């Protein structure tokens, strides 16, 4: 699987750590504050999607169909982020998905360059909190990206940071929008979870790591 591979670009939420649950719970708390509820299926719908796009999905469940101004929407996303930050404030290396540290060390030993392509503006905070920031040769600043996933921009920027051709890199994602982004940027897609159109697919990040060990 790593033959001819020079770089691996990771998504973070739902790949390196199970923050997807905290994102969903924060949106649910916000919807409850607004007087409605969102179904569990929203959890998968907001994977990989920006804060504002996620809000639009959440508001589509508002029975009152209120029309919020742009300023009000910004304020609602700030509220969601405050709730989310409260939920992840004690995150540490214990919150890494099983196998993450071993996988990063393994790639480093093989001299494979590592980058992060997360849509989250909280990603740098979490990399530090979970003590894995030093493994990354490049971290894309999501606020520098014009078009979010499924557009290729964020993965294209990540391989540029690594100075590598896209086809020599794996992209690792838990969101279908992320897999589309990886494919259109020309990286080789590795899916974590029930995803389509992946070159390789595993149930967990640890399964991916174990498969690399078996094939090395
Ligand atoms: O609100 P943040 O932390 O900037 O994150 C933006 C997006 O980041 C993605 O990684 C998550 O999968 C999405 O659910 C989230 O909306
Ligand atoms: Mg994700």
Automatic annotation (TrEMBL):
InterPro entries: B-phosphoglucomutase_hydrolase, Beta-PGM, HAD-like_sf, HAD-like_SPP, HAD-SF_hydro_IA, HAD_sf, PGP-like_dom2. PANTHER family: FRUCTOSE-1-PHOSPHATE PHOSPHATASE, GLYCEROL-1-PHOSPHATE PHOSPHOHYDROLASE 1-RELATED. Belongs to the HAD-like hydrolase superfamily. CbbY/CbbZ/Gph/YieH family. This is Beta-phosphoglucomutase.
């Amino acid at each position: 699987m790593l033959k001819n591979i020079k770089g691996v670009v990771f998504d973070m939420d739902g790949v390196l750590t199970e923050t997807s649950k905290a994102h969903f719970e924060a949106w649910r708390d916000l919807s409850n504050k607004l007087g409605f509820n969102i179904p569990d299926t929203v959890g998968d719908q907001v994977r990989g999607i920006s804060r504002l796009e996620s809000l639009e999905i959440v508001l589509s469940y508002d029975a009152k169909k209120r029309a919020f101004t742009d300023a009000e929407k910004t304020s609602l996303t700030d509220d969601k982020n405050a709730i989310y930050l409260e939920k992840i404030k004690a995150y540490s290396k214990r919150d890494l998905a099983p196998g993450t540290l071993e996988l990063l060390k393994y790639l480093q030993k093989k001299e494979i360059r590592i980058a992060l392509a997360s849509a989250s503006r909280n990603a740098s905070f979490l990399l530090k909190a979970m003590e894995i920031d030093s493994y990354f040769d490049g971290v894309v600043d999501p606020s520098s990206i014009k078009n979010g996933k499924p557009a290729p921009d964020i993965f294209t920027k990540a391989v540029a940071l690594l100075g590598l051709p896209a086809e020599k890199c794996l992209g690792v994602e838990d969101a279908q929008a992320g897999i589309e982004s990886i494919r259109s940027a020309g990286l080789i897609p590795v899916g974590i979870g029930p995803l389509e159109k992946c070159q390789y697919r595993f149930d967990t990040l640890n399964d991916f790591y174990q498969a690399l060990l078996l094939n090395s």
